[in-house]
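FORM 7B: Structural annotation worksheet

SECTION A. Query
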Amino acid sequence: MKHEELIGERGGGRKIYTITELNKEVRGVLETRYAGVWVEGEVSNYKRHSSGHIYLTLKDEQSQISAVFFSFHHRGLKFGLEDGLKVLAYGRASVYEARGQYQFYIERVEAKGVGALQLAFQQLKEKLWKEGLFNEERKRPIPKFPKTVGVITSPTGAAIHDILNVIGRRSGGTNVLLCPVKVQGDGAAEEVAGAIRMMNDFGEAEVLIVGRGGGSLEDLWAFNEEPVARAIYGSKIPVISAVGHETDWTIADFVADLRAPTPSAAAELVVANRLDLEERLRDRTERLRWGMRSLAEQHRQKLEYLGSSAAFKQPRYLLEQFAERTDELGRRLQGIFASWLALKRQVFATLTGRMNALNPIGILERGYSVSFAASGAVLKDAARVKTGEEIITRLHKGKLVSRVIKTEKE
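SECTION B. Predicted structure
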């Protein structure tokens, strides 16, 4: 029996829905009535699934609604969603039939109160700053006189023409190596990043200029994307960011080793002004010439003074004076040496006499003798010698070997 044919207690007909039927009908009503609407709310319970889909809650002061942001809709989103962010979301209200859950399906999101690009810029800037990509300590000096300058920009834009004009005018001996890339639109950031890595692999350039001419924030956006920032950070070659805007900074400006407000200014930074260099060389040459003349004049005056001195006018007289003086000094030295030698001889004789007076051999010469035990020890006390013990007596000339018959105390 069909549901619509059921008869109630009062005899009237009534329609009974299955849960699936009810959810489908409610879904149809919601999608018909609330398709393509904008809602304003704050993001909370933000979760990004491994599939890429985003699940979140949109809320205001009094209510909330679950929302889904499928990956095929948010691929072009410039900024990142996060809890607490106020947004305007475009989409449709519907029902997830399996759970009978009422929710909002988002198709597009705009940041409320600030542009999407500006928000994306602030988010990436904060992220890279925390990672240390902007640290001044890691930035390298730009070479003053590079032989080869690498330029990464559009081959048809004004930037490359400005760079070539400046380098050609200021330093004709510098080579320019161009790596042509897109500088705006889809894929531009990836091309710029790839060109930076390729220039590093090639290894010819001593410095890189990365940039383009001026434009709107959207036009310059490739230089605010993460791939370009990380390529600049990873470059072994010093990088000058030269995006054509003097007041606003891009992410590339913060990461680069040096920021130039325009491509022309970047070219002026990497090559020395030939005219200035020539002027400095002329100045140095003149100062060197003046210094050489002054030094030559000083030596000329010294030579004139020496030429007028007695050494040049009467050289034999000076030699005789030197010879006489040498003889005099020699005689004085001989006298001093003779006096010193006599004094040393006298001191030596005195010391020799003192030593002879103390010499035991000298005492023996005067008739004294010294007795030794068999061990060689000098005998000083008769009580320490035993009867029958053999002793040795040293005379002035020769020795006596004796045997003790008797000892007597003094």
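SECTION C. Observations
The CA atoms of residues 170 and 274 lie 5 Å apart. Residues 315-358 form the longest helix (44 residues).

SECTION D. Sign-off
Analyst initials: ____
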